[in-house]
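Handout, page 2. Input:
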Amino acid sequence: MAGHDSPDVRHATVSRLLTVVEAAYALRISRSSVYRLFDAGQLAWVQIGTSRRVASAEIDRFITAHTEDAAS
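Output:
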């Protein structure tokens, strides 16, 4: 069984929950823009202690929800 410090566990955690900086990088926006999206209710986040994290699935959802089709 893998321990908490195994690479598999660390990778699974990193890929599921992103820091605000990582979420900003994934969306190619500023950190303050991520906080604005939080405040506007457009991007969901998870509170862990005093930190906010964004699920990678939430990043995918946000991108899909804000993707527009090219005009025909």
